[in-house]
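pipeline: protein-struct stage 2 | run 1193 | Putative TetR family transcriptional regulator
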Amino acid sequence: MPRVPADRRREQLVAATIDLAIEEGLPAASVRRIAERANVSLGVVHYCFSSKEALINAVAESFLNPIIGPVAEALRDVADEPMEVKARAAVQTFWDTTIADPGRQLLSYELASWSIRGDGEAARLLYKTYLDVIEDFLGDGLGIEGTEEMSTRTLARMALTLTDGAMLAWLVDRDDAATAEVVQSYLAMLLSFIDQAVKSGKMTVRGAPPAQEHAAV
């Protein structure tokens, strides 16, 4: 049997951990169960990851991988459209992709709470990943540039705070219509905030004249 590269083996172990935790909850994802799910020996797990915590940290860092591709594709489809159109396309794609896999989203909250009871590293990595992706979307996707008065990181934290709460509420009641209304309202609020930030000089939008960088929502 051909030798599997270490990077590929780590990816398999991360995927096995996620699948097992989604099905049975994070406490069920012992190193032994993960090895069984990945069809490898315990020694392989310990070779690839120094500890279970290191494996869980890798899970946190990879958590958004299934979402990044679809959002990037949605942005490419509307690359020549105004910023508001890009934002709505990206948010809609993000939301559709997210609710299509509720078990994965539930795991994100379980992972965060489990981590916070310990050293909190996995939770920090998970939320850093979210913030990095959102900030890249704001900058590369929408062309928004921050200033010393208002950074895109701050805007990313605002967006994450809003969507994180909406997702948790949806996991509780599964009310698609109510949640869609809330998400669209949040988006309108953020676009309005960006509009005011641009008008006051706290933010800019690449490729737009200074006085007309963002159309009012």
